[in-house]
Write a structure and sequence with these properties.
It is built from twelve helices and 13 strands. With 307 residues, it is α/β, with parallel strands linked by helices. Strand 3, helix 6 and strand 4 form a beta-alpha-beta unit. Helix 1 packs antiparallel against helix 5. Helix content is 39%, strand content 24%.
Length: 307
Amino acid sequence: MSSVKDKNQLLTNLRKAEKISRSGKFRKLVRSPLLYPLLMAFNRIAYPLVKKGWPVITNTFFNKPFRTILPSGTDVVLNGIKSHDSEIRLAEYLVLELKEGDTFIDVGAHYGYYSLLAASIVGKKGKIFSIEASGSTYKILKKNIEYDENIESTNMAAGDSTGSITFYEYPGPYAEYNTTVQGIYVNQPWYRSVKETINTVQILVLDDLIKQKGIENAFIKIDAEGGEAAVLRGLQKSLKEKNLILAVEYLLTSGGSSHHHDAVDILYRDHYKGHAILSGGELKPIENIDRYLAESGLSSDNIIFKR
């Protein structure tokens, strides 16, 4: 799948879907006169009343079926992509960077959007490791990847030591905020209106996975909702000895240290440098991530780290 022709087609599909996702409500209605109002009615009226998601199967820009539970994944249902600007740029970068035979480790895989995208690029010679801590989310992930033999999934939380950890889960559209960090969302407006479920999950140390699988080179995507530093502490040996590129979700915080600062400090100590993903998927080195986000008007972004 990694030929220039195939990659060009993926980029064409992605940019076409991006253009559609950025169109106004009227254009969306004209393009999907039945689906668009139905989705909006469910998300804004039905779901707030019944508090129960709507399971659907849709298609992605990389032509793989994708299961989700609405309201989550509405953008994928409408446009075939995760349509937040940071997600679009990360997808573009992955299409440009990954090649046939590569290894991709997806930490916080959720329903498997990036795992499936990576699998479509690296082909049968490549390998995907999808790590998802939520049991209910993992069930959907397993269904999404069931026909991809190059994806190996694990229902665990990546961390810095073997054993178990408390995991905080949220319903419906808030499931992507699931976290191992207690109280991280107490100041968020939505937190008071949802029911938090507390579970215990087993921990996977990435150094152990990399050693067991004999991995020498890998692209690692980390979206751990505040748990990034713990994930990286479990990767200390590989950060020094292996050839890794990492995409880490980074959240801009006002003043002082944060879980994301701690994660970046770990990478800096191992001589990894941060890069912003520009529109089109190219990279730009950045010295200060907080300053870059503030000047760009962003509250969060996927930052690429490489030596």
